[in-house]
Amino acid sequence: MPDRFFPLARGYVITSPYGWRDLDGQREFHAGTDFGFDGGSGGKPVYAVQAGTVIYAGAASGFGGPDPAGWVVIDSDDSQGGGVFIYGHVVREVAVGDRVVAGQRIAMINSDSRTNGGVAPHLHLAHCTFAYSDTDRDDPMPYLQGAKYPGEGTPSGFTFFSDVSEFQDFVDDRYPYRILTIRSNDGDYRDRKFQENYARAVRMFDSGKLDVLGVYFYWRPNWQTCVDVHRSMIGNPHPRIFSMIDVESGYGNENLGDQSTALNQTYDALARWLGNPKRVLAYANRNDFTTMWRSRPSGLRVIGAGYPDDPRLPGQIAHQYTNGVITGGGPLGAAPFGNCDMNKTPLSVADFAAAVGVSIPPPTGGGGDGGEPTSGSLWDKLGDLWRYVRDHLNTLIPTR
Ligand SMILES: [Zn+2]
Q1: How far is residue 198's CA from residue 200's CA, in Å, rounded to a whole number?
Q2: How far is the CA of 126 from the centre of ligand 1 (A)?
Q3: Is residue 288 assigned to a domain?
Q4: How many angstroms does the Cα of residue 26 sit away from the middle of ligand 1?
Q5: Residue 331 or 257, more confident
Q6: CA distances from 270 to 83, 216, 264, 291, 356 (A)
Q7: How many angstroms separate the alpha carbon of residue 124 from the centre of ligand 1?
Q8: Domains held by the chain: number
Q9: Residue 254 has what pLDDT?
Q10: How do strand 301-305 and strand 316-322 relate by DSSP bridges?
Q11: Distance 138 CA to ligand 1 centre (A)
Q12: What are phi and psi of 209, to 5 degrees?
């Protein structure tokens, strides 16, 4: 069964079911199910019932009068559950062409009751059995049997990892994920927990508890100092690490404007040091990325920050979706840190590692586990990676 979620959070009520109803003395067929909350629904988040691709997002006139913000229509292939779900009377938060995962926030209920035909704000959920059509509207409720509540449990299909510094506890073996990012320095300030975190991460590589480590520094205009301190703290770089340039306009970096020349020199220096430009990533939110690093190296990979909305930056391979407080898109933290910055990537651990120029040695051990991945799994992974790159090719092309 495909992964499915209810379109509203736990506690919703059905305000008008699918089928014939009397409304203002008129008998009419209600070709969908209305969802809301006791006490008011305006502004409440709406979540994708199942994964798919947004094929329409905009104004609608068919849902009880003018609806300027509109509706969202998501088409799912058979592996995603098939059919088309229609979300009406909402303010959309996704655009045509976006691929969404099941349980992802896609809209909020429009709080202007004039867009709802004068009745209280609610979500109108409809379903087309096959492709989108104006007439094919079956009952959406049977599809929700066994669905999960949004925000509860872990969304499937993502690889998660934490992003920590001296503000969190030291890393230890309780950490449940295969990728981790830690801070080394901010300009010439050395993170007080870096050396122990780094040494522990290397031991976790050796014991099979961790696969990839990113080490980031807060970038400053005296970039040469940043790089020198970063390098001296790491020493001889472990083959499973990548470096990450944290590009932010805050904490003394306000109003720097376009820093492309210095950032490109930073990138080049790290790429030379690590011997592979893939092992140099950027971290940024959309505004800082497009303001501070206007002309970027081709092929630059990025962790895009946006809470909880995905900034979908050019070259983005992971999304920092929470600061440990703002919910959306996955867990708010991990052991042993508790709440912290969290990232997710649609790539598998192996594909993420490949994207950052790290090769994960096969597990060592007795028996016939000689070490080489089977050709089948390798080709599967390469196929997945190729499909991902192909689907994101337009976002990998530098904007200017
Ligand atoms: Zn309705």
Answers
A1: 5
A2: 8
A3: yes
A4: 15
A5: 257
A6: 48, 11, 10, 22, 13
A7: 4
A8: 2
A9: 96
A10: parallel
A11: 13
A12: -90, -15
